[in-house]
What does this fold into?
Amino acid sequence: MNEEKYISKSVIRRMSLYYRYLDTLLEKQIYSVTSETMASQTKLTASQIRQDLSTFGRFGRVGSGYDVKELQDRLADILGMNQGYTAAVIGLGHLGSMLVYSFPFEKYGIRVTELYDIDPKLVGTKIADLPVYSIEELPRQWNECPVDIAVLACPKSAAADIVPLLTDAKVKGIWNFTNANLHEKDGGPTVENIHLFDSLFTLCCQMNCRDL
Amino acid sequence: MNEEKYISKSVIRRMSLYYRYLDTLLEKQIYSVTSETMASQTKLTASQIRQDLSTFGRFGRVGSGYDVKELQDRLADILGMNQGYTAAVIGLGHLGSMLVYSFPFEKYGIRVTELYDIDPKLVGTKIADLPVYSIEELPRQWNECPVDIAVLACPKSAAADIVPLLTDAKVKGIWNFTNANLHEKDGGPTVENIHLFDSLFTLCCQMNCRDL
It folds into this structure.
């Protein structure tokens, strides 16, 4: 499936949006949808949607639209949900704990296998049935049993020390919640930064501009 | 300051990135920085940075670079940190609670004044010293004392009922953490969606493409 090899981030974001939209249809037990309906709900154009989806195979029939289940299954493939990826959450403060307890990793095919922190009160315990290791144990642990995704929820100040450990341990991806700006390096892990700060101030700056 | 009226989202994101980068300099007690140093740390070009910043006034001197404190103050202005915005967190599950307890709203000039939930065990109590109201009380509450930003951390299924309340109450901005896709409407609040799902699967899809 080499056609998947060069998907731009903006196409990926739309695929993800389509997936979420199809979820809402399935919740309402709607099993067929046209590109026109998808367009009106996602604020994209029907031709944009058809073009995006046609890149990944033939879906839908003229007149009757897309089979919601079939299309969602294919999107799950493209988004990597069926790869059996494993993940570890690093940093068990408010943010890390929130992710462990409430983010539906499992529903989307990602298995969280372990947690890391530096707090001696947490290390050696279990949280949500998952073992908590000291960050110092990570190299040995991942040498025996590698993990695909590091969910980085530690303080920014700790990120500089932890990222080299992750890179040495050949993690495939870092989902970075710290304020630190992580950049991808050749041969290093894929990085996705999620900066709550940037998001909030994109909102405030736009509000501010409207007020002027 | 009408020049601020039409800032694109990509420029805002860069302003926000500059602000965060300057924070790291101040932590290290560095008070002067050149566009070249900023460029090497942010993976942008020095000319891009100079161009972005020149839009908002004259900063820096040839040779000696930018005054970190002065530049950060100006960025705070542009990003809306000095507007005295107030916020309410709606939905006090794991995500909403995490934001209340650990997101540094105050540090960035935003004052959280109140919280909303539907759980009768929470309504009427205080969390982190903030009063928790029932969502039904919101119209009356905001009629007396409007709030600028609604931080939407409720389940997706509740968003459809809550968003009209917010719009009627003339909220200026919605920071949307639900899986629901909220769109801006003419005259309605500014919306910033933060979809953890999209972010995680942008990562997984890229990892998947590299593996192929």
Q: What stands out?
A: The helical segments of chain B are 9-27, 35-42, 46-54, 68-79, 94-102, 138-144, 156-168, 196-211. The two ends of chain B are 50 Å apart (CA to CA). DSSP finds eight helices and nine strands in chain B.
